[in-house]
Write a structure and sequence with these properties.
The complex is a heterodimer.
Chain A (H helix, E strand, L loop, with lengths): L1 E6 L3 H4 L2 H13 L2 E5 L9 H7 L1 H18 L2 E4 L2 H16 L1 H12 L11 E3 H9 L1 H6 L8 E5 L8 H4 L9 H7 L4 E2 L15 H4 L1 H17 L4 E4 L2 H18 L7 E3 H8 L17 H8 L4
Parallel strand pairs in A: 1-2, 1-3, 3-4, 5-6, 5-7, 7-8
Helix pairs in contact in A: 2-14, 3-4, 4-5, 5-6, 7-10, 12-13
Chain B lengths: L11 H7 L16 H4 L2 H5 L5 H10 L2 H5 L12 H5 L6 H14 L5 H13 L7 H9 L13 H13 L2 H4 L3 H4 L1
The chains are: A alpha/beta, B mainly alpha.
């Protein structure tokens, strides 16, 4: 059984624990053992902390990677922001001897050393590249009759030079994984557009970023989807909590169910919506849940 | 008509400082194709946010105008512009570098400072709350996740790193700095 260290980040464990438990459930079914990365911190958030101070960003990010090195595992994240932060830091430190030396001076003060022995993986690219679409398909016992708007988010695929996942403008690997559950990935306008949350923008200029989320939601509604499926708890939050804020700010109501891929796959593997925390979103999802319960066949 | 920029007000040192970030010197290769700004989802909503303009201002060394520009903080780092630039300018890396210089010069949004303070205090930018503790219990998860939240020694390590990096001072309120 392959072992990975499960890096939780902030938003999954501290706002959407359904994503945390769903990831554990689906990875177990796919014979991937997840070990808790005990004592990990914020990744830290790439757009925000790289905007403040590069040394701070690198020291915290490298400590998280080092914890995984000490366990002898590659690190698994379920979040695009954490992926961006940790992949970039890991690559920088593997390639730049001087920078690694500087960071290791800091890490030695807290009893760690960055060695560059492990990789940082994101659940979506890991499932696609290591587990494979066929194996995912074979684990499905409850094929989903759903129309899905796939939201890749930005940092899963960009900057593409560092990601090696093919086209950042028109990728298909996430759609293939969604369709492995029986669901249909429905194309919609500006599909690769940003949700608006990243770079500290949600914190700085919430209302403006809500306009970006509104654009996305409008395009999804126009395409007639049943739900949106994402690869990132921060996109998840912007599209879910964002709907409650959009209602308050612009008086517009969508009632769009927002699922992380781990939750969609969990449904297809036969887990109940409650076991996966799909009922714990900020937007009320009861109609969607009833439909799943009634047999999404 | 506004006054022309005076060369004496430009800062070659500022430009040099930005170019410390690898690849950003390619800003000098920009031929103004507008591919970056015309595809930007933020520029579509807020035309005052214009990464092309910002990077060309950076190339001229317009330090004060850039560091005090409130729109500097509107970028969501979606990297669309960086992907598209035919000259290979790392637009987002350059913008983040400009932001760090702003922070070094004492320019930081109060809301960002608060996020920084959360990390200094808890090791998380988004710490646990009572509502989520209940949700965790309902799912059969431990109330407190196995992160720095559960392990005080791990949190001490993070606090020490943030202190060595000087980050605790960067996000401290003015009265605490004294």
């Amino acid at each position: 059984m392959t072992k990975l260290s499960f890096f939780l980040g902030c938003i999954a464990p501290n706002r959407y624990p359904g994503i945390e438990i769903s990831t554990k459930k689906v990875m177990e079914k796919l014979d991937v053992e997840l070990e808790d990365l005990e004592g990990a911190s914020c990744c830290p958030a790439p757009g925000v902390f790289r905007s403040f101070d590069k040394t701070t960003w690198l020291s915290m990010a490298s400590r998280n990677v080092t914890l995984s090195e000490e366990m002898g595992n590659d690190l698994l994240t379920v979040c695009n922001g954490c992926f961006g932060s940790l992949v970039d830091a890991n690559l920088l430190l593997k390639e730049d001897d001087a920078l690694r030396e500087d960071v290791n001076k800091m890490l030695s003060e807290v009893g760690h050393e960055f060695k560059g022995t492990q990789d940082v993986r994101h659940i979506i690219e890991y499932l696609f590249q290591e587990v494979g679409v066929e194996k995912v398909k074979n684990a499905v016992i409850n094929p989903l009759d759903l129309k899905v708007a796939v939201h890749y988010g930005c940092h899963l695929v960009k900057p593409s030079k560092e990601r090696h996942l093919g086209s950042a403008e028109n990728p298909t690997f996430f759609d293939e994984l969604v369709e492995a559950t029986g669901a249909t990935s429905v194309d919609y306008e500006d599909k690769m557009a940003c949700c608006g949350a990243g770079g500290g923008a949600r914190t700085a200029v919430l209302e403006t970023t809500l306009h970006m989320a509104t654009n996305k939601l409008d395009h999804m509604v126009a395409a007639g989807v049943d739900c949106v499926v994402n690869a990132c708890p921060f996109c998840h939050l912007q599209l879910d909590v964002g709907q409650t804020e959009i209602k308050k700010t612009f008086g517009k109501e969508y009632g769009m169910p927002v699922l992380h891929y781990s939750q969609l796959l969990g449904l297809a593997m036969g887990f109940t919506p409650e076991e996966l925390g799909i009922d714990l979103n900020f937007v009320e999802n009861s109609k969607f849940i009833e439909r799943i319960r009634g047999g999404a066949k | 008509m506004s006054d022309a920029i005076k060369t004496s007000s430009l800062s070659p040192e500022f430009r040099k400082e930005i170019f410390e970030e690898p690849g950003t010197e390619k800003i000098t290769m920009c031929f103004n194709c507008t591919g970056c700004s015309s595809g930007c989802p933020m520029t579509e909503l807020e035309p005052e946010f214009n990464i092309r303009k910002f990077l060309r201002m950076a190339n001229l060394g317009m330090k004060d105008e850039l560091l005090n520009n409130p729109y500097l903080w509107y970028c969501t780092t979606c990297y669309k512009c960086q992907e598209r630039c035919p000259q290979g300018v790392p637009n987002v890396d350059a913008l983040l570098k400009i932001r760090t210089i702003a922070v070094q010069n004492g320019v930081m949004l109060p809301a960002h400072k608060k996020v920084g303070q959360l990390v200094v205090k808890s090791g998380h930018a988004v710490p646990i709350n009572d509502d989520t503790k209940e949700k965790r219990k309902a799912l059969g998860l431990d109330e407190v996740p196995p992160t720095v939240h559960r392990f005080p020694d791990a949190l001490s390590e993070v606090k020490k790193l943030l202190h060595i990096a000087g980050f605790d001072k960067i996000v401290a309120e003015e009265e605490e700095k004294k």
